[in-house]
UniProtKB/TrEMBL annotation:
Keyword match Translocase: no
Keyword RNA-binding: no
Family: Belongs to the metallo-beta-lactamase superfamily.
UniProt keyword terms in alphabetical order: Hydrolase, Metal-binding, Zinc
Protein name: Metallo-beta-lactamase domain-containing protein
Annotated source species: Myxococcus landrumensis
InterPro entries (alphabetical): MBL_superfamily_lactonases, RibonucZ/Hydroxyglut_hydro
Cofactor(s) of this protein: Zn(2+)
Length: 367
């Protein structure tokens, strides 16, 4: 990420919807992190009705991309008693479509990971180098590509308005938005596959990528961002209502610029991020994962974090409480919430003791 980008160099934020100011000032709440936690819960509870009143999008489709290994000690922060050092998570893309008040159609891709280029992320590249190739086929399952899923849904690349990730760990966007200079590993200049798309990202994360801390470095590919044109980014500060029933809120902690997708659907409000890897991590008292319920009870912790870089564990905990207070309960099993992990814990015979108690697998919505 090139330091020194200015507001005039990036895309115009006026094309996005209204700011969400309900959570402004959280960092400045007096009284410490406990006071901020109570503040976040109260504000989120109050904001639910306001967000629901914005309506619902036209459609939401869920597209499986890849299932891959992930360290158990990260995904189930200190709580798991499973013998397996790895669990499996499935990364999924959401395709959200809505209509503006003037009739314009919008398409947002949430978590459209370029899985092939994502393998170059330092952590996963090092893991792959240590695992014999025959075993990699047991650990990694590809389900479909971003472009193939869009073709199946009848969405053309030119129709895509926005790309968004909860955070930019592992991401390489060069093929999606093009490059300003030739790329040796991609065979030269890269034309954008999504020529009209802008990338919605928190400004805090762009700033962090300009000067990564050692705890962050294993999970980012900053060199991949140096060739991107600044104008492809829509750097936001805080929350936005993007369209009817489609919003984002800032949820710092997992990374400094983490953000959560909010969706109002026919079953109520959902949230999606990678702050936790299973919806049962928001209600661990109902989890059958070995050790999780007991650990939460012993330590008096209400949620089980997905803890990779530990940039700000307290703030991440508070962000998950905010997410928990925003969403509705699952209609399939009311013990669990409509939190949809952008990378969801997935049962795998190779990883004993890590099978989820409950999985959403998808969000389906048609208005």
């Amino acid at each position: 990420m090139r330091p020194g980008w200015t507001t005039s160099e990036v895309a115009d934020l006026r094309q996005l919807g209204a700011r969400i100011d309900a959570f402004d000032g959280m960092a400045n709440v007096s009284g410490g992190p406990g006071a901020r936690l109570r503040w976040a819960r109260a504000r989120a509870t109050a904001f639910r009705a306001e967000f629901a009143s914005t309506g619902t999008p036209d459609s939401i489709d869920t597209c499986d991309l890849v299932t891959l290994p992930y360290p158990t000690r990260f995904g189930l922060f200190r709580a798991s008693r499973a013998m397996s050092p790895f669990l499996s998570i499935t990364n999924r893309m959401l395709v959200i479509r809505w209509s503006e008040s003037d009739g314009r159609r919008r398409v947002l891709l949430f978590e459209p990971s370029d899985v092939e280029l994502g393998r170059k992320t330092p952590y996963f590249a090092a893991l792959s180098a240590r695992v014999p190739r025959p075993l990699q086929g047991l650990m990694v399952t590809s389900h479909g590509t971003v472009m193939a899923h869009l073709a199946r849904l009848g969405v053309t690349p030119e129709e895509v308005d926005y790309l968004m990730f909860d955070h930019l760990h592992t991401q390489d966007l060069r093929r999606w938005v093009g490059t300003s200079v030739p790329q040796e590993d991609l065979g030269g200049a890269v034309k954008p596959l999504f020529p009209n798309a802008k990338v919605i990202v928190q400004r805090d994360e762009l700033d962090a990528m300009a000067d990564l801390h050692p705890l962050q470095q294993p999970w980012y590919q900053p060199k991949a961002f140096e060739a991107l044109r600044p104008e492809v980014f829509l750097p936001v500060e805080g929350g936005r209502v993007l369209g009817p029933g489609v919003g984002i809120v800032a949820t710092p902690g997992h990374v400094s610029g983490n953000q959560t997708l909010l969706l109002n659907t026919s079953t109520g409000i959902w949230a999606s991020s990678e702050n936790v890897i299973a919806t049962e991590c928001l209600t661990p008292e109902h989890s059958r994962l070995p050790g999780v319920a007991a650990w939460a009870r012993e330590w008096g912790q209400e949620v089980i974090l997905n803890a990779i870089s530990l940039e700000s564990t307290v703030e991440q905990y508070n962000s998950v409480i905010l997410e928990k207070a925003l969403v509705d309960r699952s209609q399939s099993d009311e013990r669990f919430l409509q939190f949809f992990p952008s990378s969801e814990l997935t049962e795998a015979w190779t990883n004993p003791g890590t099978s989820p108690t409950f999985s959403h697998l998808a969000i389906h919505h048609r208005r």
